[in-house]
Amino acid sequence: MLFHESHVLGGSLSVVRVLDYLASYGWTISGWFPGRGPLLAESTGALTRQGVREKPIAFSVAGWRRPPGAGARLRRTPGYLRVLRQWLLDVRPDVVHANSLLMLPEATVARALGLPVVVQVHELPSSGRKRDVTLRWAAAVADVLIGVSTPVSDMLRERAGRTPVLTVHNGVHSPSRAQTPPTTANSSWGASAT
User: Per-domain residue ranges for the chain?
Assistant: First the structure.
């Protein structure tokens, strides 16, 4: 699991809430975090392994300019990606779940290692060149794209090409209606971590 934030917020919280449920089916889950924060502690018991490194990569001009500045961020990026690559080699996951478009650099490293990649998208970025390039990048890296709502999935389909797009609403079925997690790539399941 490639978490896009280190705080206990929306998209990451929806994933943390299903970790114990997935573990009850025998799944082992490891998590990569772009820095230390409350999410790391919140997910400790549910994750087999955790990788942590402060993420220097930003996604806007303002983000690159934030301290320590664009130059330092650029110099730190190769080291960050090398540490992630080594962590993925050590963990050797069966599938890598990137929990946001913000995790595309990390998903690209996983893809370069030959690992299957799922990119979950819960953002609805404004239309424009940046969104188009980002969605094409996501489709090129992912084996499957997951939108958390019909509008998000519709946006993904516009740029997905041959990459399958599934809609998986956040949440977990109540135990009385719980389903067995899918065993094939063509299955869908009502949880945010597939």
Answer: 10-54+94-177
